[in-house]
Amino acid sequence: NFFHSLFSKKNKYCSSSTLLRFITFSPLLLLHLQPPFYSNRLSMARNREGLVLLLDVGPAMHSILHDVEKTCSLLLQKKLIYNKFDEVGIVVFGTEATENELARDIGGYEHVAVLRNIRVVDEVVVENVKRLPRGTIAGDFLDALIVGMDMLIKKYGALQKGKKRLCLITNAACPTKDPFEGTKDEQVSTIAMKMAAEGIKMESIVMRSNVSGDDNHEKIIEENDHLLKLFSTNAIAKTVYVESPLSLLGSLKTRRVAPVTIFRGDLEIDPTMKIKVWVYKKVAEERLPTLKMYSDKAPPTDKFAKHEVKIDCDYKVTAESSEVLAPEERIKGFRYGPHVIPVSTDEMETLKFKTEKGMKLLGFTEASNILRHYYMKDVNVVVPDPSKEKSIIAVSAIAREMKETNKVAIVRCVWRNGQANVVVGVLTPNVSERDDTPDSFYFNVLPFAEDIREFPFPSFSRFPASWKPDEQQQAVADNFVKMLDLAPSAKEEVLKPELTPNPVLQRFYEYLELKSRSTDAALPPVDEAFKKIMEQDQELSSNNKPIMDALRGSFEVKENPKLKKSYKRYLRDKPSGSDDEDNRMITYNTSENKVDTVGDANPIQDFEAMISRRDNHDWIDKAIGQMKNRIVKLVEDSSTDEGEKALECLLALRKGCVLEQEPKQFNEFLNHLYELCQERNLSHFLRHFTLKKVTLIPKSEAADSDVADEDAGNFAVKQEPKLES
Description:
alpha/beta, Rossmann fold, seven-stranded mixed beta barrel, 23 helices, disordered N terminus, disordered C terminus, double-stranded DNA binding, DNA-binding, EC 3.6.4.12
């Protein structure tokens, strides 16, 4: 009644919209005038969300409105899957027409149109957001913000439980109206205080690509950025700046996941000191939604059919038997060598490790001792109990001291009573930069000895100079890496994890939405924006063609022949750290490796084929033994050609022994071969040793070797003096 009586009178000094802006932003009026903001309240469940999209459709946004439509449609598609009871409203600003309740009731708020009032999300709203109007006026985002806030307050009120959110998408490049009284900062602060009092959260996505203009335009942008920052200071608000359509797709959190604690209890420093903490998941992989089996066997006339599929398993002694084994006739068995050891359910229960819920500090260590690749699972965040002031102080003191001394904490964790496994992890300090956010820890699971996989590789220092890049090749490679830098200094970092959507998930949601409208819908082509996630940027490659050509011309490129389906590695269950082929991630084509003898014609090829056979581990020893005999036979031949061939075979034998981690066999044979050359006066073969610098296999190339690196390097077979005949 107050608003209506006020605007029923003509005011010659100011327009109704200007005066309304003053009244709306006035702290006394906005915070104490209850009607009409609290009329028509409707209940909302705690786990539902009321969302109002505030979309800028002014001329400056026309070039990216297609991407805005795509982003919002993906958001609504996910809500239909995960949060089908959420309610959504849509407000656009920058339109020629004005269509909102505040404008009708009290005037003002021009060029703001409500496309959809707050209702439960459905397929209609998905279609609506795909056809946004193209406005002709530079819109005022503050007007749209007040309209959206008014819609939420009238719909839910301040006392209703649930989640209320405003999502603003704009470039924030258009001027806002000046207030009738006071400053814009005071107005924004008042709006933010009202939002905080009503429990309304705000998310602003500001598109900034190719921003250019005069000084006045830059001042407008700077002022709007300042106003948006004020919302973050006085309310629960966040502003994200993006530069590309891809970042826009990932900036809007399309699925709302409520934080749930996985642990609430004590962080035990010692038996006399315990800190109350809560543990949340910080990062968790987003998977495809669970698909349920559907049965179409129910009669079409049955409206109450659930179309469920039930699966029953029957256990029989043999497939042909008709007798079904009862649960008490079955028992679990575990393989132990060639036997199967039966273990009953009671024995399994007794065998379980009994644990008690809690986190216990084991000690501190240097942060450099915990390598990044040790992190095994999802990251958790450990925060102090918000209701315990002493816990907040204690966690802050420990976290800040750990950061100052560059230390991390090792803790033993059991998240719940009766948990089957114990977790050992590392706490990394997370010191907050905000006064209203307490300090905390990041928690990562660490591996046990059985979890670590070691992959031994030969040292690059042992390779000949011809295998190493020269200075020119290294410079070309450096330029290639710099060319593909995803974080150039003058631009936004590309493929930021927090702004990069999963293309597999997004494509699934898009296709599911199409299938919901037509069961015969064809799979659409991959969107160009998602191709930039999965493929190298073609524009970047074409603009740097000289660098690509230089890289291609500096290295010899050979075609890698396609192998047939590789044999399943039989050493898969070998323990960690064993020097086997599985640890070196090598697979062999066994369909062609049926050579069983090192012959005279192609001894090197035969040797390589034999050691690559995996149908029996004895083939390695057979191949090495036969290659030794072949080398000795070639050395004993006095011809120069055979000496060259013997040396090639010797180098192939050395390479194979390094690959198969058999250094002792090669080192013993090399010593024997040297003694044989001395006894037989084979000076021509000794000269080959000198030229090729044949050495023993040191520890750096094979862990089982008993030869140190310096001894292997000094082992140069000396050339014998030429004997007079």
